[in-house]
Recover the amino acids of this structure.
């Protein structure tokens, strides 16, 4: 049993901020939160107390969507049209990542930067490479951070030649599932079809069956642009919509599922996501850079009860910084509300929820300091942001989101364990 | 004479990027650029060479609009409606800044953070306080950085009580102009009516006359929201538009003028700005946070020839980071282009131009490495952003804009002089 003393903030519900100045969080030897208290309760009188007095203690962040192979492409080629960006940046990076030595270095940097940014849980689409994916899983296990990682399946040539053959893709995926599919700890395997336009029916069927047989989670992309909605509607004319096509293949909520973007969805699709507990990974910076659009009404999703978290979508997004993506999410929601009088903008507390408990819950009881949640936490020294005025914990949280950076994160915990710099 | 060796990049025209890997910039003892060369020219063979090999050398940034008194409010209260934000955050900060001791500390931090962010020239609306404004000017002169600074005039109660009486405002402004109005170096006085709704006709007339008599530059706000356009149209029914009202008072291009925001302008107003060389200070993060709107078509202004630079508008904007505002400007322009098929998005080279030569030219020949421009420069060590691939100077610039931060700026020059950390 350990107690952590500091200025505590977490969001148990969308928009509901719990704050406690100079309070205590007690964490059992199992790494789970026992409770948050204003003073040390008698039953924990003998526990070690680690003091972070004057610092913020908040749940660590979850990143629900990123492409490991694309890490080197951050901040490059965003003036180009989508086709040029793919051919000049995306695919070359994908090929370089096939080299195990290159992949090893990129994977190490990715883990290091996730750590820097206070991301203790991530959903990662590695690339089509078997070797790079294995390496990434291995490095993650050593790091102490959590991630669901999968080899991307992409055997259908929607944009030219397919990235891999159906046979190789299936064989390598099966091998990875044999190696890692039984892991049930902080690092797990996740099935990762690129998206319907880049996967054959055979592949989607194979993955849907595998998900069901092995109880494996699924990640993919959904409705990032009007173009891909159109492609799916042509590929799958019998399905009511994009989401229904995934569902037919067993890739939409039959096992835990997260879908990136979700920008161009119908009301019916949103209701399906709610009903089937399919997560939307909102990727604000990517949506602005590409630009895919500002159409995801996150506030409405939260109010409807659709599970939603944030994604960096590196390298559509240029940064792993969750707080930068939080600011972009707030700004997008304000633009949406300016355009649509029926929509209201997100609040800081709501976007904080999506970055912590919203996304974190994809990994189980993660992202909050409620009882029996994994103690995934950040300690923030926000004294450099001090403005010579006494501020509440809620105000300091908002200020950290807008003005902070990784330098202000002084400690990270994942599952109750302090995590040191990976490299 | 000194030579600086490195990977040089600057934008002499909107969208035109000049790059030279491993080149030289020669700077005279007068602090002015003599030229950019691929090898050392014979005539400069004896000059000292300072090597920044492998680093980027680029023009330093200009910030055309910020409120010194509001520095402490960055990242606070952005969920609130505008009226609450003013009453709970803006005005209390304004009052605290009246205390000379508080103002001294805020001014010191402002200068330090401008330095950190590579901003060597800024247009600053201090506050209504005479003392705080004098202090800021004094501290700036010591810093070695450049700024046009003015006491805000705000004697008309558009939102409740006026901030100051007409008499006091005039008296204090005259006194400041006596003290500092003759300065013609890097630090100068700028007349600073808050905006028409918060200034009496007497005040506007007084300032217009003063501008003309003393040849002083002018800063104010223009068309930040439909609400203020409406207020001005009621206050000044005889004027064709907002810009014409300023012009009638002698505050629109009669002397060098910069107007913040410029979101809701007519074609006629844009043409007036072009014709009268009135600068638009585009404040992207502020426009998104408040939210004022995404309506400024910067690309169109550049193509028309309206002078345009970037502004942080702290604390409507949450950051002094020019590169963060550059990313927001690019993202806004992409949203605008999605909405309006006649508009095209900004390019990296164009937004880089606005942040350097675009805004810099308000201060004279500043913001470029063309001959006879002041050597205002940043040295960027972008090696931590390296992606294991050889990249061009233009690509490295884009990557620094999206992924860099103040940590990558290793040296700042203003007017040929290296500037060390102010505090």
């Amino acid at each position: 049993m350990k107690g952590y003393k500091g200025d505590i903030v977490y969001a148990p519900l969308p928009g509901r901020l719990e704050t406690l100045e100079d309070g205590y969080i007690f964490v059992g030897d199992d790494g789970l939160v026992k409770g948050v208290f204003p003073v040390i309760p008698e039953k924990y009188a003998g526990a070690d107390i680690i003091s972070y007095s004057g610092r913020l203690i908040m749940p660590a962040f979850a990143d629900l969507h990123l492409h490991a192979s694309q890490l080197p492409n951050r901040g490059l080629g965003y003036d180009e049209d989508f086709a040029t960006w793919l051919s000049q940046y995306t695919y070359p990076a994908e090929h370089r990542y096939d080299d195990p030595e290159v992949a090893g270095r990129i994977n190490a940097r990715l883990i290091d930067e996730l750590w820097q940014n206070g991301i203790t849980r991530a959903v990662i689409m590695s690339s089509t490479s078997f070797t790079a994916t294995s390496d990434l899983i291995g490095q993650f296990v050593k790091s102490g951070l959590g991630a669901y990682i999968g080899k991307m399946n992409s055997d259908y040539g929607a944009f030219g030649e397919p990235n891999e053959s159906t046979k190789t893709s299936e064989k390598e995926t099966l091998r990875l599932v044999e190696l890692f599919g039984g892991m049930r700890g902080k690092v797990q395997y996740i099935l990762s079809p690129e998206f319907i336009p880049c996967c054959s029916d055979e592949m989607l069927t194979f993955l849907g069956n595998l998900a069901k047989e092995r109880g494996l989670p699924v990640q993919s992309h959904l409705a990032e642009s009007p173009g891909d909605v159109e492609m799916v509607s042509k590929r799958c004319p019998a399905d009511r919509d994009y989401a229904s096509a995934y569902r037919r293949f067993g890739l939409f909520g039959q096992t835990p599922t997260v879908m990136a973007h979700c920008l161009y969805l119908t009301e019916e699709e949103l209701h399906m996501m709610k009903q089937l507990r399919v997560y939307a990974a909102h990727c604000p910076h990517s949506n602005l850079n590409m630009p895919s659009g500002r159409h995801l009404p996150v506030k409405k999703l939260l109010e409807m009860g659709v599970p939603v978290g944030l994604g960096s979508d590196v390298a559509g997004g240029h940064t792993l910084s969750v707080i930068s993506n939080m600011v972009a999410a707030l700004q997008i929601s304000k633009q949406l509300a300016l355009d649509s009088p029926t929509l209201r903008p997100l609040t800081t507390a709501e976007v904080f929820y999506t970055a912590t408990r919203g996304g974190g819950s994809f990994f189980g009881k993660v992202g909050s300091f409620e009882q029996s949640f994994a103690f995934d936490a950040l300690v923030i020294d926000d004294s450099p942001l001090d403005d010579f005025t006494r501020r509440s914990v809620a105000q300091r949280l908002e200020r950290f989101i807008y003005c902070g950076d990784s330098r202000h994160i002084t400690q990270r915990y994942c599952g109750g364990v302090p995590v040191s710099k990976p490299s």
Remarks:
- The longest strand of chain A covers residues 2-13.
